[in-house]
Design brief:
Layout lengths: L1 H25 L2 E2 L12 E7 L4 H14 L6 E7 L4 H16 L2 H14 L7 H9 L5 H8 L2 H16 L7 E4 L3 E4 H4 L2 H18 L1
Helix pairs in contact: 3-6, 3-7, 5-6
Length: 206
């Protein structure tokens, strides 16, 4: 009985290692099952991130460059991951900016404030000052921050990462079928290459 248990455990370990090696060799993993996308007419690319993640910070300039060349048939979605209470507070800041239409004004600055300037941006009051300093009306900030829309997105965010099997950031999901990250792709630069490769592949399939 013990021998059979050991053999079964070894088989599971070998299969897991084989799957990991395969993913690393091609630069991505296949999602099983595939997840539905928001717009079937577009190829969806989702970035899972956290403002306090140094890897996300270093990936951001590459992502910004890539966004300048975004094909018309691609829809890009930023998705804050929520793996703790602190991550949730930062996610709410992002969803508030999204609701106000000011992501472009605050996104890069928020990374800088959290990681380089070591600012505490967690409470509604702290975030209000941050947004107001970037031209947002304070009353409009509070309305958005406490809105049903932001609350609904926060509720969804607590389970979204697990639905895609995301365990770390930055991570990218392509068209609900594939996911990649730094370790699997080999580097942040390789992540961009994998994203482009899979976009091209999915474009041909449509």
């Amino acid at each position: 009985m013990l021998k059979k248990t050991i053999q079964t455990s070894l088989l599971i370990l070998l299969l897991s290692c084989s799957a990991l090696l395969k993913a690393e060799s091609i630069g991505y993993e296949t999602l099983t099952p595939a997840q539905p996308t928001h717009n079937p007419d577009k190829i969806e690319v989702i970035e899972f991130f956290w403002y306090g993640c140094p890897h996300c910070l270093s990936f951001e300039p590459l992502l910004q460059q890539w966004l300048k060349t975004l094909p018309k048939n691609v829809e890009f979605i930023r998705q804050p991951a929520v793996f703790s209470e602190l991550w949730g507070k930062h996610a709410k800041a992002y969803f508030t900016a999204e609701a106000l239409g000011v992501v472009d004004k605050i996104h890069t600055d928020f990374f800088d404030a959290i990681q380089n300037k070591k600012q505490n941006l967690e409470t509604e009051e702290q975030l209000a000052k941050f947004f107001v300093a970037r031209g947002v009306n304070e009353s409009e900030f509070h309305d958005a921050y406490n809105s049903f829309l932001v609350d609904a997105k926060m509720r969804q965010a607590t389970t979204t990462a697990s639905r895609y099997g995301i365990t770390g950031v930055p991570a990218i999901v392509i068209n609900g079928k594939y996911k990649t990250n730094g370790p699997v792709a080999g580097s942040h630069e390789k992540m961009i290459e994998v994203i482009n490769q899979l976009i091209a592949q999915e474009s041909k399939a449509k």
